[in-house]
Structures are given as structure tokens and as C-alpha cells.
Design goal:
686 residues, transmembrane helix, 3 domains, Neuraminidase, 25 strands, alpha+beta
Amino acid sequence: MAKYTRFIAVLLAAFFLFPGTSSAWQPYDTFFISHGTGGAGTRTFWMQDVYTVSHTAVGHGDQAMKQPADLFIAADDHLYIADKGNNRVIELNRDGEWVRAIGDAEGLGALKAPEGVFVRPSGDIYVADTGNQRIAVFDKGGTFVREYKKPEEGLMPASYFFVPVKVAVDDRGVMYIVSKGSYQGMVRMRGDSGEFTGFFGSNKTSGTWMDRLKRQIFTEEQLAREELKRPAEIGNVTIDQDGYIFATTTGVLNDQIRKLTAAGVNRFESLKSARFAASDQMVDVATDKRHFFYVLDRKENRYDAMISIYSPGGTQLFSFGKSRKVPQQRGVLSYPASIGIDSGNRLWVLDSDQSLAQAYDRTEFGDAVLTAAADYYIGDYEKSEANWNKVKSLNEIISLTYVGLGEVAQKQERTRDAMAYFKMSYDNQGYSEAFWTYRLEWIQQNFAYAAGVIVALWLLFRYGLRTLARNSTRRLPEPLVRVAAELKDAWYTLFHPYEGFYRIKGRKLSGFTMLLLLLLLVLAKMAALYWTGFIFRPVDLSRIRLWPELIGFLAPILAWVVANYLVSTVKDGEGRFRDVVQASLFAVVPYITLTMPILLLSNILVLEEGILYSSLHTVMWLWIGALFIISSQVIHNFDFVENIANSTITVVTIGILFLFISLTTGLSYNLYDFFYQLYKEVTVLA
């Protein structure tokens, strides 16, 4: 026994002498949101941490918080927290350690359920003293200075309830006050006199189509009895270092975050880059010195993120964090109420339910990617190169990395590298700019050779291939001569549709011809899927699902054939089913003939010249549509009005066919799922 005891002791000693590597997993996931262009779409990727859990500020005894409602980080990185349940404001240092409490026990300096706090660079502390319905101001020493109650004079309505819950002050001393239950917007007051200068930044009322219909058909008396729709009330306000006012609204899915100028103009409305998460529980915003902003979100969504990092233009980049009603890990919050960021990029989040403030520190990876992105957004591409390369070495998924490196390569006149980087990030606009330079350089170097090749090809076609085709046709077997003649009729129909369709009416075309046209149509579609230029179709080719694409392309043509034949038969049309099939194949010949020129244009044009590409695309589909309608008229011998009516009914019938197929498919799946679940239950019970 003693021998085994000594052996175990030696093993334990070795274990402690040579410890294994430890891992510091966070209690939440981090995600990167890639906003692709064109068909690339938006994709979300799991990512290494951008922020990790740091200090937790939890007071004890008299220093304990109770239902804290708001957080502000001053210029010296000290935290000021509106401690609502304890009727005070508390100050903590950068590490969350207690400094002091602000608010007197009695008198004018006594606070009652404060819900908002703001500290000016001078050190003056503005408190939204909700219970006392006022704004209370303390100097940097914590001494009460003055108060602002509801203005008795001026433009404020007498019936207005002034119940401040949040406050922010700009460099001029103008206060922007969020008042509870106010749909008119924020209360704007002058700091020197307390004069009310108007409501600011009110939300817009979103009307539905039913509301618009009511305004058209209801009388004034009926409209007066309708429930009045009011704009959603603003929930929070933040001012960044440039003086922009960020207004946060909960309970809405549009304009949850607005970046307002002093004139009340929302900067995000004019920015295509502004893409906010689909959440109606965004409660607060914090901005850093590089103009990124951090949104606190209470909603538990699919990716379970509590904090989202947005670019200066409003593009969501990263999200992380977790909230639970009963959290069991440090860093997981229960009811996040406010967010702030200090000069060292440390985030602090206030949890009202747990009465604590949780800090999150930026990682090396997070610092590299956000620093590089900040340089990229201000156009300093070369400065960002080192950080982008560092980010690339840590994580190759982030598409913004390749956009940044593409811009760097373009500045350094490495055009081909720039094109490759932009293609990796699915940035067709950047790729188009780089390709324009590459195309210009190629033309300057190879214009004479290109012109010679074009002339040679034209001469070969003019004097060689056409003569060879005429001579070879005479020596072809009879079946192939027939096929060649029928293909020639198909070409003739493109430009003389009435006469062309009359030629094939009642004729039985070769089955080989029909199969050949169908094969060419499928090949043209496949070429369009895989060979369209990246500028006009920026997609990941590996994600193309060929069979669904082909079925979706051919299904409308088949539906037209079936529906047109059925409808025309009822309308006493003369065409047989074979006639409809043959005419439909001739009608799609423009797709076969124009696809290659369109593909060629898509690979040599840039976005600014895209009107040529889109115009030819539009002409092709209009041409096909016209041929379908004319074919129906000729094959069934309808006059113009009858044909329009017949074609319209055909389109409606196609819609009914697709609806029937969808319902049948859905019901069949439900029936299969029912029997499958029944089988599983029987198997388990057995």
C-alpha cells in the first residue's frame, strides 16, 4: 500500500511541476457581422473575443447600490452612477472602487429616485432628479448649486408633465432632457437661464396602409373617434465628443438609434452604411474617441448578444455579451440599464437588477481590428496596413480586413492585388475601381494587338467560316440538314416573329432540334450563373446550388406551356400541345443568343458603365416576353384583344399552379412529419 501511495505522490508532484495550458473562455460568444454586397448578403461568424470580462463593481454595506439607473464616465475615467434606490449619485474610480456619494440628506441638495446623470468637462454634475421632477446641479466638489424645474414661462404647454429621467449637456450649456411619457421629444433648455427653447428630436409616427385608407374614406367625425397615434417616446440620450446627440428609443424596429445634429437632422438617414440589428430593446449608447459607438441591447436574440459595436457610419461590426433573468456567471447580466466607455476603451455596463457595474476590457485582437478599422474609415489606408496584417494573422474571416488591404494595395498601385482583396471581401465597388485602373493599363499596353485580333476574327468569319458553313451544309446528312434549317428558322423568328411562328405552326420539328435548343438554354443559364462578372454579381460561386437554380429558371417556362395550352383549349385556340412547346422554345432563343454578349460586357465594364449591361439585360427579357405573346397569338389564331386576354389568364393560371404546388408540397411534408413522429413514439415506447 505504501508503494502505491508513493507512486501517486510522485504523479501529483509531476502534475504540479508541469501544469497544462489553461484557457480563459468567456461566458458569452462574440460574433462578427459581415455585410456583403450584391448577392453576398449579410452573414454572421463566431469570432475570438473582442472584449473580455474585467472588474466588477459591487459595493457592500453603505456603499452598495440599489436599482442603479444610469451610468456616466467623466473625462478622468471616473464612473458616476445614478443610484436610484438609495436616492443619490455615487462616484467610483477607473477600477470601480468607491470614491464618494453625491446628494444631501435634506434640503435642496436631497435627491429622490434619480434616474440620470451627466458630468461636464468642468466637473459640474447634472442629475435627472426624477422623484423631485427637476434637474439638480452639483459642482465638482459635490455641493448643490442650482436646480431646473418645469419652466413656468415660455412655450412649454401648461399641461406638460416634466419628469426628467435622462439628461445630457452640450458644450454651450444647452440641456437635452428626456422626460418620462413625453412623445413630443426631448426638452431643450438653456443652462444659463433655464429657458425652454422647444422640443427636440421627436420620433416620427409610422402609419400603416390601413391608416392611409381610413384617411381617404372616413369622415372627419369618424376620424375624430379613432385612437390618436403618437410617436414613441425617447428613452435615452448621449452626446459624443463632436456634439452629436444620440437618441435611443425602445419599442420600435426603425430609427432605434438616431445621430442628431443641433438642428435635429438624423445623420444616419442619409447613410447607406447604417445597418442596425433587428431589435426593439436598445436602451443606451456609448461612443469612443475614434467615433465607434457601442449599443446596449436587452433583447435575447438568435446570437444572444448584449453589446454591439458599430462603425462611425452605423454599420454593425461585432456583438458580444449575454443577459439572463437569473445569471450564474460573472460577466452575464440580468437587466442591463446603461453603458459607458472610458479613455482606455474599457466598457462599463450597469446592471439594475444585480445592482452592480461590470467592466469589459478590449483584447489585443479587438484593439488591432478596431484601430485598423478606425484608420480605414477616415481614409488613412497606409497607416492601417500593419494592423490589418496583424488582424489577418489572428483571424482570416473578417471581410473588412481585405477591404482595408485592398485600399492599401490600390494606393500603392498594386492593382491586381487590390482586385484580389476586394474580391475576397465581396466588395464589388472597390473591385470596380481597381478594375478600371487595370483595364486602362491593359488597353494602353495591348491596344494594337487587341485591334489586330478583332480584325482577324472578323475576316475569318466573313470570308472563311460563312463560306465553310455553306459548303458543309450541302454535304451534311439529310437529318442534320433539317436541324440546320430549323435552327435557321429559330434565328429568323427573332427578327420576323409573326412570319417565323407561322412557319412552324402545324409543323413537327425534329426532336433533336428541340432537345438542342433546351440544352443550349440550360448551358446559357449555367454560364450566367458562373461566368457573370464579379462587378455585377458579387457572390460566392461555391455556394451556388445548381439544381434549384435550374429548376427555378425552367419551371416558369414549363408552367407557361401547360397553362397556355389549357387556357387556349378552353378558348377554342387552334394550337396543339406540341405547337405550344415548339413556339415556347423559339421564344427563349434571345436568352441563348444574348447571354454570351451580356456575359462579355459584365466582365469588361465597370459599375459606372453598368447602364449598358442592365439595358441589354432588360431588352433581352422584353424581347422574350414579346415573343411569348406573339407566339400565342399566331399558334392559336387569336386576334390582338383575344390574345391579350388569353395571355393575362395564362399568367393568372401560372400563379394558381404555383400556389397549388406550394400547398401540396407543404401538406405532404406535414403528413410525412406526422407519420415520422408517430413512428418515433412507437419505437420509443416499444
